[in-house]
Amino acid sequence: MKLRLVPVLITSLLSATLLFGGFFLYRQFAMQEPLQKIVSQYEGVNNSHISINRNEVTLKLDLQPGTKLRELVQYVSQEGKSMIDGRTLKLDVEQNSSELLDEYWDKAMFSVAEAMESRKYTLIPTELDGLKAQYPQYKNVIASTEIDDNNVYVSLSNGKESKFIILPRKPATLGVWNNA
Hints:
- The chain is built from 5 helices and 6 strands; from the N terminus they run H-E-E-H-H-E-H-H-E-E-E.
- By secondary structure, it is of the alpha+beta class.
- It folds into 2 domains: 65 residues, Alpha-Beta Plaits, CATH 3.30.70; 70 residues.
- Strands 1-2-3 form a 3-stranded mixed sheet, covered by helices on one side.
- The protein starts with a helix and ends in a 12-residue tail after the last strand.
- The model has no long low-confidence stretch (mean pLDDT 87).
């Protein structure tokens, strides 16, 4: 029995093209496109880009000031449950920040980190609002906090620009250090 090289190569190439092309089309039209539609329908989302990997779904978002992150995550998790299918949902929010908002967050970061470490999450809004009373230049900054099972969401806005911070409630634990 003599195998001819050209028909075997053509058959292998066609099979691989059909397999990987079908996988790509399934991922694009059955998963990414419907999830893209769900995310873009949410009020406050200017632009979004979705990438789906084996273990996680990454949403790259451009949001309007005042958008509720926790509600967006809850909405996407419920409406896109079949497409997410056990993967972790990761948000990557584009920052449309200003120097004032960055400075405000820099001043609040230590207090917020302390509240996160001690798991006293109710102190975060108090600390953020305390900066407005302490520094008059921050009187127009609107700070809002939300919480769910996985994250604490902090939104800072001055009406035109916004800064969104996502703080995980379950921090990475340190193991034994090699050089300790």
